[in-house]
Amino acid sequence: MSLPPSPSPTPTSTTPPRTKSSNKPHPSSLGPNSPLQPSTSPRPTTLPVLPTSPRHVSGNATSPATPPPERSKTRARDLLRRHYGLNVTPPPPSGRPMDPMDLDSPAFDAKAYYDQLITTASLTTLLKKENELLTGNVLPEMRQLDGERQSLVYNHHHELIDATDTISAMRSRAESLDSDLELLKAAFSEISRLSAEVAIESSATSN
């Protein structure tokens, strides 16, 4: 009894199965303007808006100018008058007593005040008085007056120089006029002598 032949094995293929390729392009090959490039829209940021009040600027608004004090003008005018030897208007009455020992009095006598202070005050009182004068209003007023005096000289030094030149020119001309005056004096003497002789002769002829 014969056995049926065994079926031959079917050959198996060793080729790996093909994977299904996708038609999607690689992201790196897409341009920035490609429609397939995923668009990332920035998140909108909102800033808080602060309320601002409108400023009303007036066209006529100007900073008030501080007028110069009338007292300083009067004082400067008096200093100029005193410097040039003109009449100085008397200061307005301050209402203070006419005490010669009061530093702020118009009748203050510096020599009498100094003599009384030296003869009657002790050393401690003198040192205290010196400290009061240095730290009080006396020293600033002295410095202010000295500054005003210097400013007067500085602002008018051209006039002072012109006045000096004018005086020198007048002096030189006056010295040159002395000889002319002597000649004029001699001429008047001769005229007087001649007029006297004429008067004598006329009186003699009339007799």
From TrEMBL:
<feature type="compositionally biased region" description="Pro residues">
    <location>
        <begin position="1"/>
        <end position="10"/>
    </location>
</feature>
<dbReference type="GO" id="GO:0007030">
    <property type="term" value="P:Golgi organization"/>
</dbReference>
<keyword id="KW-0813">Transport</keyword>
<dbReference type="GO" id="GO:0006869">
    <property type="term" value="P:lipid transport"/>
</dbReference>
<feature type="region of interest" description="Disordered">
    <location>
        <begin position="1"/>
        <end position="76"/>
    </location>
</feature>
<dbReference type="GO" id="GO:1990745">
    <property type="term" value="C:EARP complex"/>
</dbReference>
<keyword id="KW-0445">Lipid transport</keyword>
<dbReference type="GO" id="GO:0042147">
    <property type="term" value="P:retrograde transport, endosome to Golgi"/>
</dbReference>
<comment type="similarity">
    <text>Belongs to the VPS51 family.</text>
</comment>
<dbReference type="GO" id="GO:0015031">
    <property type="term" value="P:protein transport"/>
</dbReference>
<comment type="function">
    <text>Acts as component of the GARP complex that is involved in retrograde transport from early and late endosomes to the trans-Golgi network (TGN).</text>
</comment>
<protein>
    <recommendedName>
        <fullName>Vacuolar protein sorting-associated protein 51 homolog</fullName>
    </recommendedName>
</protein>
<keyword id="KW-0333">Golgi apparatus</keyword>
<dbReference type="InterPro" id="IPR014812">
    <property type="entry name" value="Vps51"/>
</dbReference>
<feature type="compositionally biased region" description="Polar residues">
    <location>
        <begin position="24"/>
        <end position="44"/>
    </location>
</feature>
<feature type="compositionally biased region" description="Low complexity">
    <location>
        <begin position="11"/>
        <end position="22"/>
    </location>
</feature>
<dbReference type="GO" id="GO:0048193">
    <property type="term" value="P:Golgi vesicle transport"/>
</dbReference>
<comment type="subunit">
    <text>Component of the Golgi-associated retrograde protein (GARP) complex.</text>
</comment>
<dbReference type="GO" id="GO:0005829">
    <property type="term" value="C:cytosol"/>
</dbReference>
<dbReference type="GO" id="GO:0016020">
    <property type="term" value="C:membrane"/>
</dbReference>
<keyword id="KW-0653">Protein transport</keyword>
<dbReference type="Pfam" id="PF08700">
    <property type="entry name" value="VPS51_Exo84_N"/>
</dbReference>
<dbReference type="GO" id="GO:0000938">
    <property type="term" value="C:GARP complex"/>
</dbReference>
<dbReference type="GO" id="GO:0032456">
    <property type="term" value="P:endocytic recycling"/>
</dbReference>
